[in-house]
Amino acid sequence: MILQSLLRRFADLSLGRKLGAMSLGGMLIAGLMISVALGTLSWITLREDLLRTELTVARVLAQTAAPAIMFEDPMAASETLSALASHPEVGDAELRRASGELFAFYRRSARSKDTVLRLPHTSTIDVAVPVEAGGSVVGELRLTVDMSPTYHRVLLAVASILLVVLTVIGMVLVLQTRLLARVLVPVQSLVASIRRVSESADYSQRATVRTRDEIGELGHSFNAMMELIEERDRAMEHLALHDTLTGLVNRHYLRMRARMPELSAGQRAVMFYIDIDNFKQINDTIGHNFGDRVLAAVANRLLSMTGGDDVLARFGGDEFVLFASLPTPAADPVEMAERIRRAVSVPLSLQGRDLLLRVSIGFAIAPDHGNAINELLQRADAAMHLVKENGRDGVQCWDASITARANQRFVLETELRQAIQLGQLSVAYQPIVALGSGTVTGMEALVRWQHPQRGSVPPSEFIPVAEESGLIVQLGIWVLEQACRQVRHWHAAYGPLHLAVNVSGRQFRDPGLVQAVSSVCDRTGFPVDLLYLEVTESTLMQDTEAAAHVMQRLVALGMKLSLDDFGTGYSSLAYLKRFPLHKLKIDRSFVKDLPRNADDGAIVKAIVNLARALDMQVLAEGIESDKQHGVLAAMGCDFGQGFHYSPALAPRDFESFMAARRVPQHQPQEDSRTRY
Ligand code: C2E
Ligand code: CA
Ligand code: CA
Predict the structure, then answer these.
(1) Which sign does the torsion angle of CA 609, 615, 621, 625 carry?
(2) Residues 451-456: what's their mean pLDDT?
(3) Angle (deg, nearest 10), helices 279-286 and 288-303
(4) Residue 383 C-alpha to ligand 1 middle, in angstroms?
(5) Residue 625 to residue 603: CA distance in whole angstroms
(6) Which of the 8 DSSP states describes residue 271?
(7) Is any ligand 1 atom within 6 A of the Cβ of residue 458?
(8) For ligand 1, what atom is nearest to the CA of residue 467?
(9) CB neighbour list of residue 360: distance below 8 Å, 6 or more residues apart
(10) Cβ contact 377:339 at 8 Å
(11) Which of 79, 203, 398, 519 has its Cβ near the most Cβ atoms within 10 Å?
(12) Atom 7 in ligand 1: which residue has the minimum CA distance?
């Protein structure tokens, strides 16, 4: 137990103490052993010597005393024994006859005076010799020898040996401390280096190597390891701060590492936020590899426009950021943005394909619009978003109204989130009329938001916000459920009316769409074949493969698809073949100027014919006059929708509308054209 705790204590000592303790312990043990060995040796030799001397003395005395016993002369014997006075080590002497009877004796009177060290009585030894005369033993002489002086001498020898040993240990210790320092200092400095590195996490530090022994080797290995770590750190840092595709720095670099340049008076710097328009389409239609090459090409074009301390970063996806100082105080940032836009828009030939890229650029100026990288970035980004909203392919300088708008949007989004829970949303129904017969065949469900302070907020304002925030997924399904429940209820009164519900592109990207739509139909019992889902061209374009797949699954469930706002988008005829569409909805913009505008008339006619040829139904949106109704009906357009018949109505108003229309059916009016 004690040994174990001692060992444990020893293990916790510093290396210097350990070595010191070990050598001191070793030397003490060795010194002790040497002293004991030498002491024992001297004791044995001294004792042997003494005994031999006393034996000789006893023999001589015995020989001299023999005649005294023979002639019965004790006086002579005593005289002989008194010669022992010159032998201080002999205490007593007794001469006995062969019969054992005491014949003569000698006592040392002052022996205690000579004894320096008083030892127990065992410190005497008896030496006995026979007294012979004429060949026979006549008595015995016994000497009692005092060993104390011998002990004393031995102790003295041991003490002097110990003294020598201790002196040697002392000298060795002094020498050892010097030598130990030579061993310990490199170890301690290595330990200090390691501690410094681990505390500061600065792997550029190196240990100083002082020796060529194992410790030196350890130092070299440590330094080599640091070298490796540093190299790896550099590689990781490079990876973390650079874009592997273009080799440009990335978002993190710009946000964390880029420094604002020192701008002298009148000097300005510009943060350009550059976003390639419809880049996703390139990725989706031609492939990601091709998309990557396009990005690399754009990076090169942008790089060729930079110089000096300008920072060009790829911000992710198809976004680039250029932070450049204006060459002269008079330089115009707008002009610079336009130059970037033109440079990127130069026709691009890649892998046998010709490409016309367009970009949206927003920018913010330092110091006018901010003095921090992040602030400028955010403002340039907001300006770029405005370009996107305004139809892409342009440049926009940041101003306060842009951020104000963005803030408004944020507020709107927050309020919209609550609007669903607070019951501020409702669904209105705009009747759809068969142009030939004038009968109501269905309706389109349109969401309405009654804001407690702002009144009715138009969908054109909040639907984009809902789309951007993803809220549209929840909102769209809510509208669908309300509409299905309502129209299912109306079927009893008005017959099998079709229901059209808008589905935004964002909803198509939601993996749960098909499941959500079909479960709404299940829950409400709405007949699937009467449900039209309205999609826009941009939805079809966003992820053609995935979108086509989702549409096929919806159609497989029995629903129908309408292409909304037809004519305003890309109007790619390829889409019409590719997707399982049942109905084209001609956008209001072509109907608006009918019948005055002959071009619009020709376009509408062409769309109607196209729909016929592709075996699709066709509907005209935004019919506001009887004349428009007439032309469209004459062109063979199947359905119409617009204020001419009715705006979107709240359920109760829709019921009144239907009730009002029933009357003329029972009492036919003269002019059949007014029968819708
Ligand atoms: P949309 O799908 O093209 O809907 C038709 C829009 O035209 C509706 O506007 C309707 O009120 C309006 N309209 C109908 N007839 C006429 C007319 O004769 N003249 C004029 N000037 N306008 C007419 P609204 O309700 O403001 O909706 C605007 C857009 O918001 C919709 O365009 C649709 O894209 C979107 N939207 C509305 N409700 C929803 C919804 O529940 N989900 C989704 N994803 N989008 C919706
Ligand atoms: Ca619609
Ligand atoms: Ca429309």
Answers:
(1) positive
(2) 92
(3) 140
(4) 27
(5) 19
(6) E
(7) yes
(8) 44
(9) 274, 275, 277, 384, 387, 388, 392, 393, 394, 395, 396
(10) no
(11) 398
(12) 622
Helix/strand/coil for 393: coil
Q: Which residues of 475-493 are buried (b: 16+ CB within 10 A; e: fewer)?
A: bbbebbbbbbebbbebeee
The DSSP 8-state label assigned to residue 670 in this structure reads S
Q: Are 569 and 535 in contact (CB under 8 A)?
A: no
643 pocket-lining for ligand 1 (C-beta < 6 Å): yes
pLDDT for residue 121: 52
587 in ligand 1 pocket by Cβ < 6 Å?
Answer: no
Cα(537) to centroid of ligand 3, in Å? 11
- What's the 135 CA to ligand 1 centre distance in angstroms? 158
CB atoms within 10 A of CB 275: 22
Q: Is the CB of 148 under 6 A from ligand 1?
A: no
Ligand 1 lined by 446 (C-beta under 6 Å): yes
**Which ligand 1 atom is the nearest neighbour of the CA of 536?**
34
Is 455:486 a contact under the CB 8 Å cutoff?
no
Spell out the residues 6+ positions from residue 539 whose beta carbon is closer than 8 angstroms to its own.
503, 504, 505, 508, 547
- 90-97 vs 102-107, strand pairing mode: antiparallel
Which of ligand 1's atoms lies nearest the C-alpha of 446?
38
Q: Is 460 in the pocket of ligand 1 (CB under 6 A)?
A: yes
- Predicted local distance difference test score (pLDDT) of residue 114: 47
**pLDDT tens across 491-522, in order?**
999 999 999 999 998 898 888 999 999 999 99
Asked whether residue 420 carries a pLDDT value surpassing 90, the answer given is no
Q: Rounded distance, CA 337 to CA 482, Å?
A: 48
Q: Residue 312 belongs to what H/E stretch?
A: strand 311-316
Question: CA–CA distance from 478 to each of 3, 471, 472, 500, 564 (Å)?
Answer: 80, 11, 9, 14, 20
User: Could you write out the DSSP letters of every residue in 397-429?
Assistant: E--HHHHHHHHHHHHHHHHHHHHHHTT-EEEEE
For ligand 3, a single-atom ion, the residues with CB < 5 A are 564-565, 621
Q: What is the residue whose two structure tokens read 């014919």?
A: 609
The DSSP secondary-structure symbol of 143 reads E
DSSP 8-class letter at 242: B
Ligand 2 center from residue 504 Cα (angstroms): 10
Residue 572 has pLDDT above 80, yes or no: no
Cα 646 to averaged position of ligand 1 atoms, centre (Å): 13
Give pLDDT tens digits for 135-170: 889 999 999 998 888 888 888 988 998 899 889 989
Please state whether the predicted TM-score (pTM) of the whole model is above 0.90.
no
Tokens 């059949």, residue located:
672
Determine the distance separating the centroid of ligand 3 and the alpha carbon of 579, expressed in angstroms.
18
Task: pLDDT band for 569, please (50, 70, 90 cuts).
Answer: confident
pLDDT at 96: 93
Q: Per-residue pLDDT tens for 90-124?
A: 888 999 998 999 999 998 865 444 444 455 556 78
